[in-house]
Input
Amino acid sequence: MNFDSRDRLWIYLSGTAILVITLWIYFVYFRPEWKDYQSDFRDVVAKRFGPDRAREIPSGIQQVWAKDLNRVDRCVTCHLSAEWKGLENAPEPFKSHPREILTKHPVSKYGCTICHGGQGYATDTATAHATTLEHWEEPLLGKELATSYSVSDRKALMQINCNICHRYDAQTPGADFINDAKQLVKQKGCRACHTINGRGGVIGPDLSYVGDKSTEQYDYSHLLGVKSVFAWHVAHLKNPKSMSPESVMPTFGFDSHQAQSLAMLVMSWKRSDLPITYIPGTALGDRPTPEEIAKEQQMQTGEGAFFAKKTCFICHDVSTLGIESATKIGPDLANAYADVQARFGRTLEDFLASPTGTMAMVLSTQIHLTDAEKQEAIAKLKIAYQKKLEQDAKAAQAKK
Amino acid sequence: MGAMRKTWQQLTWTWKPQGERESGDSIVRNLLLHWFPAKVNKESLSFRYSLWLGTISAVLFLILSVTGVILMFLYVPSIERAYPSVKDIEFTVSFGWFIRSLHRIAAHLMVAVVFLHAARVFLTGAYKNGTATQQNRPINWVVGVLLLLLTLLLSFTGYLLPWDQLAYWAITVGTNIARAAPLVGDRIRFLFLGGHEIGQSTLLRFYVLHCFFLPVFVAFLFAWHMWRVRKDGGLACVDRLRLTQKAEKVAPIKAKTYSLLGITRGRTVHVETSLVNEDLHTVDSSPNLTRRILLVMLATVAVSALLAVLVGAPLEEAANQRVTPNPAKAPWYFLWLQELVSDTTIRIGSFTINGALVGGVLLPGVLVLLLALWPFFDKSSVYAVGAWLTKERRRQDWVFLIVALFIVILTIVGTFMRGPYWNFYWPWEAWPEVPRRF
Output
């Protein structure tokens, strides 16, 4: 067949094309951007801290899953040194994160993007930072954006996100732009015309959740330069009638810093369904008292820690070792050494090996003790009993 | 050594059949290949005639099934988790971005190729019966139109699944047009959406339709479609041979022909027609047909994979029912409908013509009905079967091409020339800048 050889040619060409495409895809897979950052990081760490620490660095995509916030942040794939000490002057992305704020906002509980912005899902720089990305509205609130808007402090834009949680603070340490803006709101009497958080006037629109207003809902026809919500707010605050010709809002003569601060404040007023533990200043009624916390600490680290760890304390006191039960369902185990003999006619060792009654049920289903643990319990109960005897002796002496 | 050679022979004899008998066996005794005839007409194999568009659509459906099943392990059809699961497919699943991109490209290609296949069948008059007995090509045409509609529906149901702004609002547009159907419009929309709004019930039933019911219907209709092609004696171009050939008396064939498969009611075309000189006009299916099928499969996969790498699948912001994108557009294969709807919404004084009804339901409804029933209106002779743009069918070919061109033009206008507020922009006119938050 004379069309046979032409067919074969096309089969080989298509097969080669598929092979080339497969190799291309594999190349993309084997050399993603983050791999280079990770190997560079290993070099940096090897130089500064030695090869052993460098070997501990994980490879592959890393992520922080902030469960309560339902967020996954993969920034740590490249920004591996976020919680490291000693890399404060390393170049990005290897710079250590300022430590103080992490003590109050641990990475495992908050992730990264809730403060910094950006797209947590992404695993390459451009998509993760999302500063010019078309379909992601929360860019990295960092130096690049701050420079483009000429914000005097290049790290300030992030404070917008601080205020999503810290909204109800009068002043938040570290959020100076936001603090200035909140002062201005008081001083200039914004609430005379605007309702903010349930209080205020009705001449202007309710601003309580104005940060949720979508990009399409603003009128940019009078805005020069970059058409963005932030730019609109800054321009509007400097001269309201320039953005909304029919507005009756007066011109307050704000300078750039004040206008930017207020724009940041206003954009932070969003609805958020954060768990209450993330909102600062919420006074939960039944927090443990300092005495309760101290007692809990003592039970967990004191002499009777074993009985706290193995949950014996749920039913039993071990009074001479400092273990207090809230329920006192079972007897005080400080007496156990002698008491078991009296009640059941068996030694403590024997009883633990083959318990009867409630303890039979508890020790077979709820609390599992290995042989070593049983020995430890017996030893500790012996000590507890000794202490009880000493205590009783002292008490008897004192009576005399 | 001899044992190894024997094993090799047993595994590969179908690729290089020795003689006619083996060639026939390798088709007839093979599960996947047995729906082909053991000998196939040379004209059917040509690229010029059919462009192999039907095979290409089948290969694309295969690609979609394979990539689709892989995606089913990763995608979650819940309105809270759909979007994050697609993001995870894009960023953390190995080759996830490629599988998704390939799935999407194959879907768009399939809609286009199925349409082109329908156009080819129309323009070659291949929906008409030839001279053989018991042919029923018009039924096969109707089955084909149903397959086209199912392809569009499959693409439409799949479009919603990422649950981003593009998905949500495209389906809003599509289902709102459906609402305009008289009497049953609202009920159809309610059935589609599983409620009055696009929400969890919509996502779930679109998912079930997309992954199960529609593919099963397609598989069934596809089987019927193929079966009918065999019953009708192969591709329509085969019928022309009978017309152009001199009838010759042929000695009765003593040996059994391998083109006869099983016992059916009546006798197959090959026995009835005196298609003389099979040796002149047919070749063994193995290796000739199988080689070409391999070629078309590889070429389709290569083109789809290349496009998948070059053109990424879009993913916009998460669906937000409070924010409508401006403009909100239906998927590209329904953009001609959306354009028609906007063009037929005409205000005359205080009276507005319901464009959704006229342009969205009536006009396309009439067109689809005409398309499906056309073979029964076509009065041309058997001389117009199985050839491109015959003189006899010239007028209908022209009408078809004009309508097809019209649809293509409307699609182009809807895609490239409709901007915010559905305002008309010439290709050289800039659209207003898209604002951002920062």
Remarks:
- Strands of chain A lie at 64-66, 71-73, 195-196, 199-200.
- The two ends of chain A are 123 Å apart (CA to CA).
